[in-house]
Design brief:
Blueprint (H helix, E strand, L loop, with lengths): L13 E5 L4 H6 L10 H7 L20 E5 L13 H18 L3 E5 L1 H8 L7 E2 L9 E5 L10 H8 L2 H12 L1
Parallel strand pairs: 1-2, 1-3, 3-5
Antiparallel strand pairs: 4-5
Length: about 170
């Protein structure tokens, strides 16, 4: 299985970071391609996208200022197959990816993603008090996996906090 291509460029408003690609994503070459994954529905329902995109349209996020990557590039059936060593390597690679791109915010799609990245065990949903990379806002959102037990409206409510926060960050910039 091949890793899938990141969709990244400099000065994005927001970069989404997942655990790693699913087998379905590796097969199709697109992020969040598993039909049970609710990522594209969450983005639309939270107001982050004007319409519900399909996984095949993942590259279109760049046009609206969003990027996509993962903490680990190896595709697996589930995130619990990721090794400690892969997370360690992924943490360093992710810092090297994000730092020079200077996004306004990074949204970690899953508390576990941010726990692995930051080394913090206890953390709230939403904007974090301290960022791992200074000058870039860290935002923790629930995983979009169909395995997540949170109700869809609870998940969407957390993602709905991103657009106004991005608006504030853009105003500070101007």
């Amino acid at each position: 299985m091949n890793p899938i291509k990141d969709h990244l460029k400099e000065n994005l408003d927001l970069i989404f970071v997942g655990f790693n690609p699913s087998i379905r994503s590796a097969e199709t070459g697109h992020h969040f391609a598993n039909p049970n994954n609710r990522f594209w529905k969450i983005l639309h329902e939270s107001g982050l996208t004007q319409k519900k995109l399909d996984a095949e349209e993942d590259y279109k996020l760049l046009d609206i200022g969003y990027g996509l990557t993962n903490i680990v590039s190896r595709p697996t059936k589930s995130a619990d197959e990721i090794t400690k060593e892969e997370y360690q390597k992924g943490r360093e690679e992710l810092k090297k990816k994000i730092r020079p791109l200077k996004p306004k915010m990074v949204c970690y799609v899953g508390k576990g993603v941010y726990q692995e990245f930051s080394g913090k065990k206890s953390l709230p949903w939403g904007k974090q008090k301290e960022s791992v990379i200074p000058g870039i806002v860290d935002f923790v959102a629930p995983s979009s996996s169909g395995l997540v037990r949170m109700k869809m409206n609870e998940v969407v409510a957390i993602y709905e906090k991103i657009p106004p926060l991005l608006g504030e960050l853009k105003n500070v910039e101007n």
